[in-house]
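User: Structure tokens for this complex, please. No commentary.
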Amino acid sequence: MIDLTTLSPLAAFALLLSALLLWLFLPLIPAVMELIRPQDATPLNAVGNDAGRLTYFADSFTQFATREGLLGMTVPARLSDGTRVRAHAHDAPLAASDQPVTDIVVLLDSEPLPENTVLESECIARCSTQQSAGVTYRALLGQEDVLLGRNSTILRWVHARGRLVAETGTRLIGRATADDSITLATNVSFDRLESGVVRVSGNVAQEPPATATVARRDFVPEPAVSMGPNYWRVTGDLTIPAGAQLTGSVIATGSISVREGACVNGSMKAYREIRIEKGVVVSGSCTARGRIDIGAGSRVSGPVISETAIYVHSAHVGAAGKLTTVTAPIVRLLPGATVYGAIMAAQSGLTIRSVP
Amino acid sequence: MNILMAANIGLWFCIVVLAIYTVRHYFFTLNRLFGRHRQPFVDVIQANWPPLVVFVPAHNESKVVRDSLDALLACDYPEDRFTIVPIDDRSVDDTRAILLEYAATYPGRVKPFLRDGGIPGKAAALAEAMNEHDGEIALVFDADYIPGVRLLKQLVAPFFDPEVGAVMGRVVPLNVGLSLLTRLLDLERAGGYQVDQQARMNLRLVPQYGGTVGGVRRAALAQVGGWNVDSLAEDTDLTVRLVLNGWDVVYQNRSECYEEVPETWESRIRQIKRWAKGHNQALRRYVGALIRNRRDLPLIQVIDGVLLLGVFVVPLVLLLGWICTVTLFYAGSPPSWGRVTILAISSFNTVGNFAAFFQVAAASRLDGSRERIRMLPFLFLGFLVSTLSVGRAAMSRASWLRGQPVQWQKTERHRAARSTGTP
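Assistant:
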């Protein structure tokens, strides 16, 4: 032990100063080490390939399956990494079991899997298939049409090269995509859907035109602040009367109500709700902080964006060949709802029979 | 009023201002850590995409402009609705030849705008080039920026909301590991975008359009009077004018784009002095208008707008606080409400000083970065240099005078130039 009392004042000061500097340097030790030997000095992974492309996983798996020969004439018993592969066909079906199937499964023909089968690895359906009820898939790649039986579950993604049909009670967790179309029964939950057309089976209304086809009386919102030619900002609520036509874009700091048969040749934004009644045509987009209701027989051509919820009745969003997006934390689709493009429900998507 | 009273008032002014900014830092950070992440447009992946013009202002950018143009050409925006307009403003290197080479290789898609006269500077170049092109949406990228394949759609998506006047994406440093400075700038950028900008977006405040990796709606730009060609920070200037006129500015945290950050301290000091002068100029121009228009704007936006404009004055306030403290100490006069003052100052020292560090640490956590957080103590060095640079800039005449001629003030590039047209 050093007897501090025997130190000269200068030495004591030097000791104190050294201790202080050491104390100050302590928090810098990890920093200096990271500077000398960088462990984490690469740019952030800024450009995600999967963002904005719902078929990314399906496409990647297709490439993988092609490399491994899963899409060829014969099915290999194992993949190059040792993963086992099981074929399922009419003459060699998987046996019904309470145990989950951990191997990759290839469906060689249209023979359905046993009810309530749980597949913990990916599944490939080479032909059009109408599957049994209660099957759980980790991921399913259909080379043709895919029909998911009642109460099926998709845990990550499903992609059909043809049509995708989901019967009632199905849960589509993650991404569900199809090259041709997606048809959902009622009581189907979903997160993200994308196809040329997504519709809920039921009473489909006659497809409305993309633009107004009959003469309507012009409507200009008043009082309103002009934000440019045909561009208005309304303080409070706005009602566009039945049969009227608004040409331009409008922002309302309250709610917007578009009455039956009206037409908006532009886009709308509401700080609260947007309520679109029957037979309305909107050529642009609808954005709201609150809920958006799109009434039966209406058409919205542009994206529909809500920060709360969107209810699509027997209406059309987008058009054939002019795809668009419906996005909100909560999306509810009613029978006859038809969306051309993508539906993104960040919290909860569900097809329902009627609005509660 | 004697000098001691003035020092007392000055000291309390400084304490209040610094306390406000401290609370702001913590509020934003806590919002990002525990609040709702607001990104309503990020899932718009299909749409009838509007006509788009992408402007790339360039002044002596031959080292980097090829990478930027190649990345833009690879974007998945529909080709028939998308034009790239690189702007060469009197470059003396090979920039112009490179742009003409791209125009010949991609006719109709790359349409260079060449300037040899007029007011120099980015704002003036953009103003002239935009007069020649009519796309509904105009995006702007600096010549060293490298967008990802899907970035253009991501940046255009918010414009489907008719209230959106401008959009800003996130800037991510590409040359992170080159030096201490680039590593510190990587941390600063993370704090600025991942926490500060996104918190403003979450809270419906005033996210800032940053002049690059973003864009404007032509109708909104026209309504607010176009680009201010005498502005040192045309981005801040435009942000405030849009907000004053009822337009929204949107920040998209997932719309990330690589940039090259300064690699030398000289370059960094020049950059931050330029930003400080531009901000201070905008503060002088618009703080009064923001306060006068407080009835037309949400109060919270007015407050955030004023604090945003004043952010480069804070170092001066800090300096003033030090002067007042030293004056009172040597005058042998304790500050008024001595115990409260001492409590306020010590509170700032223990909490306020670390607000920015807390913000950066939170950003690193949100980014999923692990080891880079160990560099945090070195940020003190970066802040010290920034404070001194901002202080010097704030005392320059250009910070406060109106209508000064603007020159090109660009950041030095360090990337090795490519000699061929395609990678």
